[in-house]
Specification:
The chain is an alpha+beta fold. The chain has helices at residues 3-34, 42-51, 80-85, 88-94, 145-151, 182-188, 192-195, 208-218; strands at residues 55-56, 68-77, 102-112, 115-126, 132-140, 156-163, 169-177.
Length: 247
Amino acid sequence: MGVAAVAVLAISIEEVYAHICRRRAERVLHDVRQLQVGKSTFEDARAVALRNGGGVSPYDHRGCSTAHCTFEVVLKHYPILLEVWGQESLLLHVLPRLGLQVWEGGGDVRVDAGIVTCVTYGVLVRGSGGWLLGHEAEEFKAVPKYLQDRTGQRSYFVRWANITTPGGGEGIISTVTLQANPKERNVAADFDCLTRLGGCTSLCQIAPAAFADYVKQTGRMPWLEEHDPNCGKFKPLAASPDDTKHP
């Protein structure tokens, strides 16, 4: 079998694997979104976690009972070619052009007194530029103190985040409260980059609807990629896009 034929076969296998991971991610996102903060129960949260291969979070050291528990589901897509070949620096630039992304994501569900009080789900995507692109959505029964000054009386708001994991990156966090309407919840949960083939390779692609709201709320863009056509639709929303910084 020639080199070209081997390459085509390897890419075909990657496409199938990526499709399986993406479909699983769609199912997890759908299931987590069915949980209702303030209404769903401990058993509802546990059932969603177990059904999707998750369980009790190892990062919550308070233990797990109906009084308090955090469940989590973790998803990852790491192309097989990276495992076999190992040329990560090269393949991270090549694979996105083939519609193959390195990403990880999932959801956390917190239960207090037998009722779901917080649902968080998100994704980190390795962009072709090497940095991480992130989008996280969270819904609280009661907004934590560290966010109360930012939220005010708003039922939905978006903030920019500097990702501090190795390699760094940028991301968006969309927060909704019990008072949010269906439209606000749908915008916050726009995870097209996670569930579509090819994902996202630029900051302006990561969560278009949520990012547009962020620019409207703040009048600025925390980043601006001059050569990214996806950024064009956001520029008119910013107060002074020319003064924003590059990642």
